[in-house]
Amino acid sequence: MKFLVDLENFLRSRFPNYPAEGALTLEPCPAGQEGDFTLNCFKIARFCGNPAAAAQAVAEYLANHEAVEKVSAVKAFVNLTLKAEELYAASAADMDTLLENVKLPEASRKRVLIEFSAPNTNKPQHLGHVRNNTLGMALASLLKRVGHDVIEVNLVNDRGIHICKSMTSYQISGEGKTPESTGIKGDHLVGNFYVEYNKMLSAEIAKLKAEKPELADRDSEDLFLETALGQRTQTMLQKWEANDPEVRELWKMMNSWVFAGFAETYKRMGINFDHTYLESETYLLGKDIIASGLERGVFTKREDGAVICDLGKMGKKVVLRSDGTSVYITQDIGTTQLKYNDYKPEKMVWVVGDEQNLHFQMLFEIMKRLGFEWAKDLFHLSYGMVNLPNGRMKSREGTVVDADDLFDEMASLAAAACKERGGEELSEAELKNRSEIIGLGALKFMLLKFNAKTTITFDPAASLKFEGDTGPYVQYVAARISSISRKAAERGLSQKAVDWKLLDSTYERELAVKLYFYGSALHLSAERNDCSGLVEYLLELAKAFNRFYRECPVLSADNEALAAARLALAEAVRRIIADGLNTLTIGVPEAM
Description:
Oligomer: single chain
Structural class: alpha/beta
Distance between the termini: 37 Å
Number of helices: 22
Shape: globular
Largest sheet: 5 strands, parallel
Strand order of the largest sheet: 7-6-5-11-12
Helix content: 40-55%
Strand content: 5-15%
């Protein structure tokens, strides 16, 4: 705002040590105090003597500024009320500029690579993947919105013993079934065989323990290779690694079914990856880097021949087994360098559950010790588990909440809610489209509402309520404003010549202030890699609009000029809500 530039020029003229760059920023005036904005003078106290002296100097100058209506110093803070035309000029009156100014300066923009999703090709994606996908795609969208160059990648685990379990099960009972012949989505079909495998394995282990009581206390995983099924699966893995044609052909066929299923799931969520890495192509990476690190003393050999890295308090991490085979961190080291070589990002982000916290701390420290200068900008977006009201998910028993089933449930619940609110007259196609936008929007909004590290309980029905801190509550505000605008257009009410000075109530000014801070909300959320801040902002804006709408009639205002001004303010709110929800990858229906 111009008055802020004028203020800082005055402070530079009065205090020789005052910095050339902007030192003061506007903050919302605290609740219970009078004013639109607050200036925190602690930030400039060292240049101006002390906090109280700084506040006094600021207040004295602003008291005579043409843009300021009222000002007061409260200890080290200065509260100010702007003249209405100045307040709206910086917010609702010039929405194109406000929305464009959310972009960071060129010098602050970075090339960021975000890896998320990372499913296995032995089963469909589940609720945990939905949180991962939602966090990853929303963060990527947020970073793009503020101007960063973002690359979205996926690393699919398409090989290993768990993949061979589904393949072994198919060999036993598949009988030539395909997604086409069964009408079952490819990833669900393969997942069914994975569930059947674990049932067969559990039965064989139970029989083994019954026949050999001395094994009764052994963990089931320890007995895997004691079973005929486990041995058969292990042999299949060895054949896969030896490039056996028959095994590889089965693997390619079943993986193709899963990838086709994943593509449908990603399309429904609105996800488009720039690149998908496959573990079958990357699992041998990293050994050359380990060899180089061993020569340079980054790693040492243990007595049994295993290569380790002593990471101090984090522990000693094996990076290569004694037989020369890789461990998981070996390929992670190689894949990290591969991604850097492919895209040259200035920052890399992994969206992975919090059970892998130590793994990523070790990986990042190892990359630094290996001498990769860019390793200082590696970030793990750790997230907590998602539970349902009826408990946790267990994929091996087949009680996992599949992503597709969850999407269907959300859309069904949204359709029922729309019908309750007068949507019976909608065509089937329109009801389906609207319920999809509202249902998936409610799901994403609730998953983004909390800081990623929080373990949450997701209640589908509660997330779809049109009242409270939900996605539909915010969507409904945008839809209500669209309805108001349509009715205004029917009346011929114009927004072209708006007299912003007419909007001087507490509720109208509160909206203008909220609009002004949209860019700040985006920047802070992007800086923290945390979309929950943007969610909170949109909820606050929606609540402020509803307060305004209750107290300040739009179409039934006292006169046409006031109605036009309030309509323009409401439309500004709609544009910000739509922009914010779209940034979170959430759609906005025209009506609800």
